[in-house]
Structure formats: structure tokens, C-alpha cells
Amino acid sequence: MAQQPDVAKRANLSNDLARAIVRLVNDRGLQPGDPLDSMKVLAARFEVAVPTMREAMRRLEGLGVLEFRHGSGVYVGANSGRRVLANPLSPRPDSDQLVELLEARRQIEPQLAMLAAQVREPVAMTWMEEALERSRRLVAERDEALWLSNLDFHRAVAAAGGNGVLAEVLDSIVLVHGEEQKEILRLHGDAVDDYAEHARIGAAVRDGDPELAREAAYTHLDHVVEVIRARIG
């Protein structure tokens, strides 16, 4: 119990830093794709430790406000101008909310995967392949950033269908409920199996097999629902 004030103080600092970074992006008039100062430079600017700055910036990465490019640096993300974003102060999701979120995705994503296999929009396909490769590496490294890469995979599949409205529906669900997605992966507990299911979806989309893509997406989400229910039941 004695540690709770420290935990709250750290969370508040992370939130304040995240907001300060967003203000910095806006003040400089930066646009998606523009480079941002390094994590070390920003930590010095705001007079905090690098790990503290990293935590704040990872939150913004999860929202798509920032983008980390391996070996290149930090860039302004595609969602920097969004008005509807996840609330970093929202309470930890309860078990019913997690299941409801997964059931909603189970109704939507199989159709998006089927459309993706039919259209295979080139830019989104490249994004999908990059997300899969990044997830494969993060699984091997047991990196906690895996959940972000997994979100990118699902968003890329939706975008590959070429329908911006449908992609935005899925995009909003996974971005606004980013913390819930992180909790789902934690409860799932089997990152290797989860990646294998993603790879099957990706292969079906890549091969242009709409029915297999739909089936693989439904099977994946149905499996996740079963696992989460068993964990929280």
C-alpha cells in the first residue's frame, strides 16, 4: 500500500510528458512522417530520465501519434492529428469489457480479412508484411512492445481491403482500446501461438484466398475469446 502514491506519481508524470510531446509536435507544426528529436534529447529537454521518457513515448506510439523506426529514429505518426484517442487515465479494463471487445472484433475482422485477400492494396500489404516480420522478431526477443506490433498487423489487414471507412472502424477500435489490447495479450500468454495465427491470416491474404483469410481471422479471434474467458473465468 505504501507504494501506491509513487505509482500514481509516475503515471501522472508519464501522462504529463505525453501531453508535452504532443504540444511540441503541434507547436513546431510537424506533420506525419516528420522526424522528431531523439528520446535522449527529449529527456534532457524535459529534465527526466530516459526510461521515464521512453514510457511516455511508448504510450504515444501505441496511439499512432509517434512512430519508432528501427535504426532510423522517432517520427510523427499518422494519428498525430486525431481528436479521438485512448484515454491514458482510463481505469484498467474489467473482464467483461475485454470479452465484449473481442466479440466485437470477431464480428468485424473476418470480413475485413476476406476483403483484404480480394483487394490486396499494395501500401497496406507492405505494412502487413513489415508488422509480421517485426512481431516475429519481438516474439523471439520476448519484447513487451509486441502488442503494438500485433495491433499494426490487424490494422494493416483492414487497410489492405482498400475501403477507408471500414479500415477506420477497425482502426478506431484498436487505437481507442489500446490498453485493453495490451491486457488481452498478457492474459493470452502464448505469444508464439498468437504469432502463428497471425501468420496464417497473412498468408491467406497474401495468396489472395478470401475464404481462407476469413476463416483464419475468425478462428484466431474465436480462439483468443476462449483463452481469455478461461483465464478470467
UniProtKB/TrEMBL annotation:
Highest taxon of source: Bacteria
Stored PROSITE patterns: HTH_GNTR
Matches recorded under InterPro entries: GntR_C (IPR011711), TF_FadR/GntR_C (IPR008920), Tscrpt_reg_HTH_GntR (IPR000524), WH-like_DNA-bd_sf (IPR036388), WH_DNA-bd_sf (IPR036390)
Pfam families in UniProt: FCD, GntR
TM region positions: none
Keywords in alphabetical order: DNA-binding, Transcription, Transcription regulation
Molecular-function GO terms, alphabetical: DNA binding; DNA-binding transcription factor activity
UniProt domain HTH gntR-type: residue ranges: 11-79
Name the UniProt record assigns to this protein: HTH-type transcriptional regulator LutR
Native source organism of the sequence: Occultella aeris
